[in-house]
Amino acid sequence: MREFATFTRGAGPLVAVALHGGHELRPDLAAISRLSDRDRLREEDPYTAAWTGCAPSRVVVNRSRFEVDCNRPRERAVYRAPEDAWGLPVWREALPESAAAASLGLYDDFYVRLGAVLADVIARHGIALVLDLHSYNHRRDGASEPPAAQEENPDVNLGTGHLDRVRWGSVADAFVDRMRVAMPEADVRENVRFKGGHFAHWAEETFRGDACVLAIEFKKTYMDEWTGELDRAACDRIARALGLVAPALLEASLASA
After folding, report:
1. pTM value?
2. Residues 119-135: tens digit of each pLDDT
3. Which of 38, 55, 138, 178 is least surrounded by CB atoms within 10 angstroms?
4. 5-256 maps to which CATH number?
């Protein structure tokens, strides 16, 4: 089993993060999991780890969010009951406290390491520009049911609910503008479906605005969210678009530093 998270260091202030890209469960949790691999995959963010290639520095969580969710506050990071996990019956039996404690230990260690990475980036460059990459479901009513309404579910949702828009508004605007050019077929909007999760909030609180975190959600039109089947061409289009957009974001962030 791979380590909980992989940290890749590179030059410059741009960092890409995939908090929900992992699928592995450690053996003690896999033994009591009530969910199939496909059930878990549907609520994870498959293939987002590959998208982090748009940045020199990358942080990828290799384990499933069903082990511990690094985009939730610590008190809600371990899924114990169905109401914690979209109504899904996660465990065959009550989650042992020892297992929950082990998961929270991983969570704590991850945030210590992530904090050190971002602090170092800020010390060297004055800022950290972070792309917080996610995906989301839009066919929750069932595989054969119509997708959720486009009006409330853009193809690309930029979450800036925790962003200091006075300082970083030009970066957010650059993302929307450039992504619309890079993916002209896509509906790209801000704060429609999501406004950003705990990680973005933590970074703003911890670094007092020196970390510009863009919480980016791609609708799962690049795959079948029920079967897990990947549309490789669609997935690659997202990766290319992020690579095209990243230089403009970097330029805008350095101008706002």
Report:
1. 0.97
2. 999 999 999 999 999 99
3. 38
4. 3.40.630.40
